[in-house]
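Long-time lurker, first post. I've been practising inverse folding by hand and with some scripts of my own, and I keep getting stuck on stretches where the structure tokens seem ambiguous. Below is the full token string for one chain I'm working on. Before anyone asks, I'm not after the true native sequence, just a reasonable design that respects the backbone. If someone could post their per-position residues I'd love to compare against what I wrote down in my notebook.
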């Protein structure tokens, strides 16, 4: 899961690029373009926008074009539209990214570096065949590249793996990066992560005994790139709907058990004076529940590339001619949720996770 920070902040305070993610393991930072950064990227008295990106870090609220030009620099010879998603558990100063195809037949898949050991496996011993893009697996180091600056405000990529080679359009030195299209209106907004002070505080308890559920308090907010979530339908449709899911952690009181007090005669209670005002309850209660679109769901076993957990609704699974509705969540995302939920003391109030595309 990712918190968001503004591009203008990093331009002003370069040292903040080296800060670790405040959210602990399985997390990262998304860079979003704010109004101040947009103003800085204009010229001719604000009449024209500068599309060329000349410095790191790269923004995540725009589709970017990796552009190769001819020797004269006047003609584009190759254009690839991609998303640069910062690698998990790395500061932005590491310049490590997952490069996700935003167009074409590999849309939604992540670039994979080839291994030197695979060179010459066919008829040509000196040729290294490029790997096809694959769905993201955060555990696969060959899906992470490091972006380096080149002269004339251009870039090139290297594999994080010592024996890896990035796809040629990233490896070749001197490519330009241009802002192709904003993800507006579904681009990431401000998400500051966990509010430790609110998280440690119990929700207000001033409601009547007949209340089934109290009002909720949002104690944390994040964004999750689409690669960590699976839905029914194609990845292309998922990306069209939203490339980032907004995630919130809220706390509230909810009635999970109740019983009637039929013993109104306290005369036989030897410890009546000591126990006045106390009620003893011994009962088994549900500790955890999962929901998909408000319907209780069953959590399946981890499966597939990237280690996805599938959540399948227990009711209304399938009507005549209907597809089975289910949602998959990447194991890295689930690990982060687990870390946040068990951190600190275990309260008897209820915490609820929700994410919206």
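-- Answer (accepted) --
I ran through it position by position. Result:
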């Amino acid at each position: 899961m990712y918190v968001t920070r503004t591009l203008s902040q990093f331009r002003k305070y370069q040292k903040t690029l080296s800060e670790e993610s405040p959210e602990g393991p399985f997390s990262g930072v998304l860079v979003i373009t704010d109004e101040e950064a947009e103003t800085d990227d204009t010229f001719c008295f604000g009449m024209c926008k500068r599309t060329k990106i000349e410095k790191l870090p790269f923004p995540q609220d725009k589709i970017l074009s990796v552009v190769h030009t001819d020797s004269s620099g006047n003609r584009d010879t190759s254009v690839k539209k991609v998303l640069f998603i910062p690698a998990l558990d790395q500061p932005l100063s590491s310049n490590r990214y997952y490069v996700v195809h935003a167009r074409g037949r590999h849309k939604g898949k992540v670039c994979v570096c080839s291994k030197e050991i695979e060179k010459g496996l066919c008829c040509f011993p000196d040729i290294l065949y490029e790997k096809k893009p694959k769905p993201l697996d955060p555990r696969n180091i060959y899906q992470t590249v490091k972006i380096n600056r080149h002269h004339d405000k251009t870039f090139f990529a290297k594999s994080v793996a010592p024996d890896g080679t990035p796809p040629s359009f990233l490896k070749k030195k001197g490519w330009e990066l241009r802002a192709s299209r904003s993800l507006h209106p579904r681009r990431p907004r401000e998400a500051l992560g966990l509010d430790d002070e609110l998280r440690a505080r119990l929700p207000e308890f001033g409601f009547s005994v007949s209340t089934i559920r109290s009002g909720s308090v949002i104690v944390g907010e994040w964004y999750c790139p689409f690669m960590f979530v699976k839905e029914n339908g194609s990845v292309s449709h998922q990306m069209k709907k939203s490339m980032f899911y907004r995630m919130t952690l809220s706390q509230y009181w909810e009635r999970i058990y109740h019983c009637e007090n039929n013993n109104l005669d306290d005369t036989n209670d030897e410890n009546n004076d000591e126990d006045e005002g106390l009620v003893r309850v011994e009962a088994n209660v549900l500790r955890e529940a999962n929901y998909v679109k408000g319907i209780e769901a069953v959590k399946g076993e981890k499966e597939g590339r990237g280690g996805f957990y599938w959540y399948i609704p227990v009711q209304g699974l399938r009507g005549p001619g209907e597809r089975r509705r289910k949602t998959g969540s990447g194991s890295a995302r689930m690990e982060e949720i687990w870390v946040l939920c068990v951190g600190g003391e275990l309260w008897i109030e209820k915490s609820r996770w929700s994410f919206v595309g």
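A couple of notes from the structure itself: The longest strand covers residues 76-86. The two ends are 14 Å apart (CA to CA). Happy to go over any region you disagree with.
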